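Q: What would this chain look like folded?
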Amino acid sequence: MEKAFSLRDFLPFLIPLIILQLVLIVVGLIDLSKRQKTRGPKWLWVLLIIFGEIWGPVIYFIFGRGEE
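A: My prediction, written as structure tokens:
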């Protein structure tokens, strides 16, 4: 009989991804709050950073930061 996979089986893979996602969100929001200018409205970047999972903060760091 096959063993059904449970969440416990995937925890060693999920925990580092969750930590990485939280760190990216926090660093992205801190950076966004300190910037005077961004490429686009700040409220849109906040939504993308928070709800964009891992890719939202990465997209912000690549495209959203204004020139200093």
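The mean pLDDT is 90.
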